[in-house]
Amino acid sequence: MSRLSGIGGRLYRGDTSIDFIGKRRRWYAFSGLLILASAISLGVQGLHLGIEFKGGSEFTITKPGVTIADARAAVVTAGITGETVVQKIGSNKVRIQTGALTSFDTVKTSLASTFGVNIDNIDTQLIGPSWGKEITHKALYGLFGFLFVVMLYLALAFEPKMAIAAVVAVIHDVFITVGIYALVGFDVTPATVIGFLTILGYSLYDTVVVFDKVRENTRTITSTGRITYSTAANLAVNQTLVRSFNTSLIALLPVASILFVGAGLLGAGTLKDLSLALFVGLATGTYSSIFIATPILAALREREPAMKALAKRVAQHGSAPLVTDLKSAPVVTGGSSSKTNWARGPRNQPKRKGR
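Now predict its structure.
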């Protein structure tokens, strides 16, 4: 930890600097590959919608010693040939989800014979697809409303171009998360929708922290002319890098324990829908705030005439070294002399002639 804090101090002071902005084409290419893989996954496999979205029948058996293999065998015996989802809940309960059925009697009889329980003790539920459509519409309304409010807030609190870069990063995170979800093949449930909406807030939280430091470093660069906008933005990313890493690590540890230990080892299948969306979303949110949002912001701002003039002025006189206290950096003026007036001492007073 002491070594990590030492690296953080050097990054904050500018003694050590990682060129995130200058190598943005590499990050764009990597994100493009992820987006392409997500699009292919969605096109080939698509999302596996749960019973809550496409409708179907659900059977729940409660008895000590129930197994998933016995439940699948009972469904096959009942003559159910469509897609079936079998999940074990706890140690004495199993849940079977099938497509829409006209009659529950055959499946209930097969389950009662397999597990040795009374037919009346098997809980059955019929879910229509209309409820899933209503949930989908509400989720989309919430997503669009969220993006609109976020763009409005960032445009007022920061600047419009920061709002554009942040929303692009959020869309990037959601699309990649959905693609990985389709690739893995987990069922999309209401818990999945909750996870998708949760990662939006976390992605923006990390991005806003970086943007706040960018705004602090670039507040007076046009008037002082010390460094370019991209250099100041890159310094801001380096200064917040250790903070973003620590925050993301602390957030990912409990989610990873739920995903790999709870859902993987202990078999708590009801948790994997939410935990996978959160795990992938948190990781991509941290990545996008550093490698996507800030480089996009720098590219948008560098197209402004004032920033172009500043870049020419800095290139003409040479860039100043990166330091944390930007007030201590040399001031580059637009004069024809190659010397900077910050190093100029007091002028010598003219000698007076004797009377």
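Residues 319-325, 330-349 have pLDDT under 50 and may be disordered.
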